[in-house]
């Protein structure tokens, strides 16, 4: 069955892209295929046919490849020269539920927006993006998806010579904050209106006849929800430039990201981020900063008072989403403001002790109403402090009608046992670079079911070794 393309962006916005064919691999090799997503898209074909399509060797029927033009603030500085420097929007498809998706080929060769780059992606970074997007999806975090990963024979020069690869990203939309910024700064008011209308008609039809201010309010709330998930699940993005922010509030563009191992609120996962602008605990404030940039870009369409009013909704929306998520992780049926102190005290204790964030939350499901102590106390150095907190926690659990077993099952269903730790990704990458892709495929399978204990997988649920906690990741890709 062929993909069902409806390439509206190509039709409606000729001034916002450059048409271009991929510079394909001569001998593409399909390394990973997201089979459930391929089925959802009605995509069928032999592995070599898929490799040829998504390795740029053969034309994908119905596709209209193009490089999008946008701008953005990078580390706080406006850059008007951005765009898809090495990626191509292949087109827009409908899945078997009638939902629209963009397909985007990353690493397809230089475009007019490459700014001197080679337009390629390497196997290392492509593996990291594939695994991260799928890991987040299976945790329930709003995110773009990865359809497939294709490797080529092409050597690519980075800090060292690496193998080239292409990643096919599936996203509900590739419209970024930076698209609106480009239109605003270039005075392209009609394109600005058109982009807003395009997003509404494609994704939020309930806003079709509503005032434009509700569009921005929707973006504010979707962004707040995304950031709440990041903070609740310990995800550090690493490069929160406005061109890396999706208008729909989906996690977008995976570079030097990281998942928390030890709970370090100030974690800087990008070793190029010398000031800590994009540190883990700075993510909420940076998201609001980015929304302010978007508000400026939308000012020709929306009154300033309405923009300010929408921005003021960000913090309470974020706090509400975060409290709900953390309440679930702690087994609280209806978390309220009275639970904020309980959550904050736990996080402060985890930070002071250097406890593993994911495991510490997973262990709490062992608590039982009526007990005086929680079994996981043995993992803590300052047991008196943990016991004092535990008494408050047990008291809170006793106020619920939920049985211990029902609560345990609910908690284990939202607290992952398997997390995409940097060292696990690095092990898979190192093996793949030597031609052995078994660990990569194994890790991908594991991350599709992160909450359920799987036989023989105990090593993947352990704290990382010391060397695995200090891996440095850069924007090099």
From TrEMBL:
<keyword id="KW-0067">ATP-binding</keyword>
<dbReference type="GO" id="GO:0070733">
    <property type="term" value="F:AMPylase activity"/>
</dbReference>
<comment type="function">
    <text>Nucleotidyltransferase involved in the post-translational modification of proteins. It can catalyze the addition of adenosine monophosphate (AMP) or uridine monophosphate (UMP) to a protein, resulting in modifications known as AMPylation and UMPylation.</text>
</comment>
<protein>
    <recommendedName>
        <fullName>Protein nucleotidyltransferase YdiU</fullName>
        <ecNumber>2.7.7.-</ecNumber>
        <ecNumber>2.7.7.108</ecNumber>
    </recommendedName>
</protein>
<feature type="binding site">
    <location>
        <position position="253"/>
    </location>
    <ligand>
        <name>Mg(2+)</name>
    </ligand>
</feature>
<feature type="binding site">
    <location>
        <position position="86"/>
    </location>
    <ligand>
        <name>ATP</name>
    </ligand>
</feature>
<feature type="binding site">
    <location>
        <position position="106"/>
    </location>
    <ligand>
        <name>ATP</name>
    </ligand>
</feature>
<feature type="binding site">
    <location>
        <position position="118"/>
    </location>
    <ligand>
        <name>ATP</name>
    </ligand>
</feature>
<dbReference type="GO" id="GO:0005524">
    <property type="term" value="F:ATP binding"/>
</dbReference>
<keyword id="KW-0460">Magnesium</keyword>
<comment type="similarity">
    <text>Belongs to the SELO family.</text>
</comment>
<dbReference type="GO" id="GO:0030145">
    <property type="term" value="F:manganese ion binding"/>
</dbReference>
<feature type="binding site">
    <location>
        <position position="253"/>
    </location>
    <ligand>
        <name>ATP</name>
    </ligand>
</feature>
<keyword id="KW-0808">Transferase</keyword>
<feature type="active site" description="Proton acceptor">
    <location>
        <position position="243"/>
    </location>
</feature>
<feature type="binding site">
    <location>
        <position position="85"/>
    </location>
    <ligand>
        <name>ATP</name>
    </ligand>
</feature>
<dbReference type="InterPro" id="IPR003846">
    <property type="entry name" value="SelO"/>
</dbReference>
<keyword id="KW-0548">Nucleotidyltransferase</keyword>
<feature type="binding site">
    <location>
        <position position="244"/>
    </location>
    <ligand>
        <name>Mg(2+)</name>
    </ligand>
</feature>
<dbReference type="GO" id="GO:0000287">
    <property type="term" value="F:magnesium ion binding"/>
</dbReference>
<dbReference type="Pfam" id="PF02696">
    <property type="entry name" value="SelO"/>
</dbReference>
<feature type="binding site">
    <location>
        <position position="176"/>
    </location>
    <ligand>
        <name>ATP</name>
    </ligand>
</feature>
<keyword id="KW-0464">Manganese</keyword>
<feature type="binding site">
    <location>
        <position position="83"/>
    </location>
    <ligand>
        <name>ATP</name>
    </ligand>
</feature>
<keyword id="KW-0547">Nucleotide-binding</keyword>
<feature type="binding site">
    <location>
        <position position="169"/>
    </location>
    <ligand>
        <name>ATP</name>
    </ligand>
</feature>
<keyword id="KW-0479">Metal-binding</keyword>
<feature type="binding site">
    <location>
        <position position="119"/>
    </location>
    <ligand>
        <name>ATP</name>
    </ligand>
</feature>
């Amino acid at each position: 069955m062929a993909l069902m393309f409806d390439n509206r962006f190509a039709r409606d916005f000729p001034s916002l892209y450059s048409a271009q064919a991929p510079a394909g691999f001569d001998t593409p090799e399909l390394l990973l295929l997201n089979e459930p997503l391929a089925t959802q898209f009605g995509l069928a074909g032999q592995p070599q046919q898929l490799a040829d399509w998504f390795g740029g060797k053969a034309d994908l029927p119905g596709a209209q490849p193009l490089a999008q033009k946008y701008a953005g603030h990078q580390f706080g500085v406006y850059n008007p020269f951005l765009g898809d420097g090495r990626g191509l929007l292949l087109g827009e498809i409908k899945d078997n539920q009638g939902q629209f998706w963009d397909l985007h080929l990353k690493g397809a060769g230089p475009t007019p927006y490459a700014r001197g780059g080679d337009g390629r992606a390497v196997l290392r970074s492509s593996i990291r993006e594939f695994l991260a997007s799928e890991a987040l999806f299976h945790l329930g975090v709003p995110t773009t998806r990865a359809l497939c990963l294709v490797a080529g024979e092409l050597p690519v020069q980075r800090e060292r010579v690496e193998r080239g690869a292409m990643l096919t990203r599936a996203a509900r939309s590739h419209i970024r904050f930076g698209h609106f910024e480009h239109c605003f700064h270039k005075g392209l008011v009609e394109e600005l209106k058109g982009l807003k209308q395009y997003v509404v008609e494609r994704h939020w039809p309930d806003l079709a006849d509503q005032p434009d201010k509700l569009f921005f309010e929707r973006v504010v709330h979707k962004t707040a929800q995304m950031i709440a998930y990041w903070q609740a699940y310990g995800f550090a993005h690493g490069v929160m430039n406005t061109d890396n922010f999706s208008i729909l509030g989906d996690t977008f563009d995976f570079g030097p990201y990281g998942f928390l191992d030890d709970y370090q609120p100030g974690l800087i996962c990008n070793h190029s981020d010398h000031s800590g602008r994009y540190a883990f605990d700075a993510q909420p404030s940076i998201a609001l900063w980015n929304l302010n940039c978007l508000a400026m870009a939308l000012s020709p369409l929306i009154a300033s008072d309405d923009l300010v009013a929408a921005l003021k909704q960000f913090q309470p929306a974020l706090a509400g989403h975060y409290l709900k998520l953390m309440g679930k992780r702690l087994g609280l049926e209806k978390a309220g403001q009275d639970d904020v102190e309980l959550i904050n005290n736990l996080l402060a204790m985890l930070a002071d002790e250097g406890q593993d964030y994911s495991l510490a939350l997973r262990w709490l499901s062992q608590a039982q109403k009526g007990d005086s102590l929680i079994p996981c106390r043995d993992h803590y150095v300052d047991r008196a402090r943990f016991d004092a907190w535990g008494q408050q926690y047990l008291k809170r659990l006793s106020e619920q009608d939920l049985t211990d077993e029902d609560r345990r099952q609910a908690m284990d269903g939202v607290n992952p046992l398997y997390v995409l730790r940097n060292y696990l990704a690095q092990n898979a990458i190192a093996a793949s670079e030597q031609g052995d892709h078994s660990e990569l495929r194994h890790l991908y399978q594991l991350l599709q079911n992160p909450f359920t204990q799987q036989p023989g997988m105990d090593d993947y649920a352990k704290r990382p070794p010391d060397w695995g906690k200090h891996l440095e990741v850069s924007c090099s890709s």
